[in-house]
Amino acid sequence: MKTVLVTGGSGYIGSALVDYLLENTDYRIVIVDEKINRWTHELQLKNLKRLIVYGMNLLHIDWYLDCLCLNLWGDLHAIFHLADYHLVGESVSDPLKYFDNNINCMLHIMKLASNFSNPYIIYSSSAGIYNHLSFTDSSGTSKTRGSVGSPYSLTKYINENILESFGVTHGVRSFSLRYFNVAGMGDNHGYYREEATHVIPALIRALKNNSTFTINGNTYVTKDGTCVREYVHVKDLARAHLLALQYMEQRSSVSHRVDIGTPDCSYSVKEIVDSPAVHDIIRENNLHNFKVEIGPPRPGDPDILTSNNGISPDFIGWIPKYNIEDMIRDEWKWEQIRMERV
After folding, report:
1. What tens digit of pLDDT does each residue of 27-37 get?
2. What backbone torsions phi and psi does residue 327 show, to the nearest 5 degrees?
3. 201-226 confidence digits (pLDDT tens)
């Protein structure tokens, strides 16, 4: 039985990934996360032979992990690294926090990997890195995408380069998943931050409270003035992590990157608010006080962020199963039970 490490495994995406790995593999799983929620503790009690949980910062895990894997569970087969700080606005106001945690955690992953037999590394990157890359459009003109980006997206860009460099110099085998706005809920868990900063969770909480939802800016260079983003269901994303690992297991090349998203699931914030699923929720729950207002734009937000001109996930066999309506309805379902589960 192989052992894998999931950093950030008690978070929103990490919890969905752990669920998926428990259901679809026979891996032993080690979770390392600063904040362990109630659901993860319950999951550990149900899976004592396959799941161990450490409630600590990744930077402090060396000795514990060495003892566990080398003395009890054998070598480390793979590391799923999802422990980066991820709030765009906070990264703009406190960039040192993001550079310190996100880049140092990646360097620590390299250090951990050197203690074992070159485990595979699957990295939770971001579509935000396209703010730091150039691409060639259909006319052959070199362009940059979006704005200059945030400190958060810059740390993702730097970390992808760290992985690629260690691939060249030390043969570290890695896969960076560049994904977009994640929504919906896993089998038992969803987005649980007290203050929702992502569009769909923030919208659903406003609906639940029958209050006002604020659109951050309506003067972006888009069809209706509100930001356009691509969306992916958290269950689809969890499946992509395992597909990336399986792809690497069958090939000798060391560094890979892919966009986990589809242009067919690109929507403006206004289109999300006006979606059939939102209208159904309002009607079915008599949310007559729900209103929408326009607020100031958020620092660091690009006008459009989609996977056009990106790297298609077809080559790892990933095709999304869920659409935007599924994400909104699942988010509503999660919001009804959120306070009971975290």
Report:
1. 999 999 998 98
2. -60, -45
3. 999 999 999 999 999 999 999 999 99
Alpha-helical runs (H) found in the chain: 12-24, 38-46, 62-68, 88-93, 95-98, 104-114, 151-170, 199-208, 234-249, 269-273, 276-284, 324-341
Interhelix angle 324-341/276-284, nearest 10 degrees = 50
Read off the tokens for 209: 């409270």
Length of the chain: 342
pLDDT value of position 175: 96
Give pLDDT, residue 236. Answer: 95
Six-digit token string for 211: 């209050």
137: Cβ contacts below 8 Å, ≥ 6 apart:
143, 309
Amino acid at position 154, single letter: L
In this prediction the pTM is: 0.88
Which of left, alpha, beta for 147 (phi over 0: left; psi -120 to 50: alpha)? beta
By C-alpha distance, which of 171, 170, 176 is closest to 316?
A: 176
Q: Is the pLDDT of residue 293 over 80?
A: yes
End-to-end CA distance of the chain: 30
Mean local confidence (pLDDT), 175-198: 84
Between 80 and 306, the more confident residue is 80
Pair type for strands 120-124 and 174-179: parallel
DSSP conformational letter for 285? T
**Residue 281: how many other CB atoms lie within 10 Å:** 20
Q: Which residues pair with 32 in a beta bridge?
A: 7, 54
SS3 for 288?
coil
| Dist CA 34 CA 60 (whole Å) | 10
Cα–Cα distance for residue pair 82/86, rounded to 1 Å = 10
- Return d(Cα 119, Cα 79) in angstroms, integer: 7
Question: What's the mean per-residue pLDDT of the chain?
Answer: 87
Q: In what order do the strands lie in the sheet with 120-124?
A: 51-54, 28-32, 3-7, 76-81, 120-124, 174-179, 255-260
| Residue 196 pLDDT grade (very low, low, confident, very high; cuts 50, 70, 90) | confident
